[in-house]
Design goal:
The protein is mainly α. It contains 15 helices and three strands. Strands 1-2-3 form a three-stranded antiparallel β-sheet. A hairpin with a 2-residue loop joins strand 1 and strand 2. The protein is globular and about 60 Å long.
Length: 490
Amino acid sequence: MRSEVPDGPSSTRGQEPSTSIGGSFCFAGALRDGVVYSAQFNNSEFVEENMQGERKTLTQLSVPICLETLFYMLSGMVDTLMLSSVSDQAVGAVGTANTYIGVFIIMFGVISSGMVAVMSQNIGAGRPGIAYQARQLGLVFNALTGILISVVLAVFSGGILRAVSIAPALLESAETYLKIVGGASFLNALIPIFSSYLRVFGYTKHSLIGTVVGNVINIILNSVFLFVFHWGVMGVATATVISKAVNLIIVAAMGAVLIKAKQSPEREQPRRILAQIVKIGFPSAFETALYNVAMTFIVRFMNQMDTDGMNVTARSYAMQIANFSYCVGAALAQANAIMTGWRIGAKKYEECDRGTRKAVIYGLVTATCFSVTFAMTGRFIVHIFTDDTQMIELVVKLLIVDIFLEFGRVTNLVYGQALKTSGDAIFPVIIGAIFMYLFAVGGTYFLGIHMGLLAVGAYIAMAGDECARAIGMVLRWKSGKWKSKSLIEL
């Protein structure tokens, strides 16, 4: 049986979330008896309309987010496939450069992650005007931060790569990629602001459209720049920047046209909203910073494992494949985080707990099925990228270890995102600071270099980190302390 999936929590079956003239605004706002309702505001009056059930709402949010993540992963896989026609070193260079780009754009997470919590809780509490204010503050902050980081990466790319002891065979290509893509990292700062704004109001399909169009353009331009102009890594970098610019234009335009929260009368002191955003966003960004710095150490250790970059290149291939088993769990985590914000804003904590458990179960089942399949068919998949027998065998070993890594990572994602959106953002940082460096970094050095397991040792260490943190997240959620962390006082 075919079931229709509406676009957002405020939509009726087969319809878009509705808006009306004169300050009236419909969106998901209240929960009662496990059912999501639409809250229509007109001169501060609240009218409930029966909507889809909880399980359907999780589906209608997570499916477009999953497809968006999948298209993003496909784009990365196509980049890798096309680059592999140039050389394995080009693949390793781009993978390494992207790792360091992530390190320098962590400040964007201060606003984007905190913004989702503030917007979704205010939507659940019936205050869309404050959600609009949160987006405006996030936009200004991330634009300024993005410009600054773009300048740093464009000017100092070579020095950054030399400082982290990149393999000599990868230096020139990685520097080219980092200079171009890093120099346009302000795009990475702005896209999440507009995409998150669409998602928290239920327009997940429209964020998907921006990603799909951008990725299609990326693939087309990759083909032209690589196989017609023969620009190599420079061509892939240029295509990436152009596609991100197109993505930004689309999501910004759709948000302006579809969402009328600006017309809603609720307003708050900007300083108070910014303080709430930072309260959630700063710990979340600090956790991301800890993770990215840990990954920097891991990549540095992996670059020291050989002189031709084989281990770090194998990691790039394995990541491109394994990301598909992770994307469903990541989408469920994002969808559940939005729903958690709505429910906490409406003070419906039991629905939060029940919905989060469901999201974890769905994520674990799906991610495990994917990762086991990839491990079993790894030789055939990796052969698409390279004919090097030694490389194929190494990547297959990494995919086997990745089964356990994904099990921990999906649990980590769903419970971690739910904790952050609830307002309990400090605990994930503490857990991350302990286990990422004890297990992931320390384990990579001990198992990979000291014990001679190389890339396989690094993956075992990273799997141990994800699983240990997942246990901590589950125990924290079950403690119920997140219920007292709400940003909304009604």
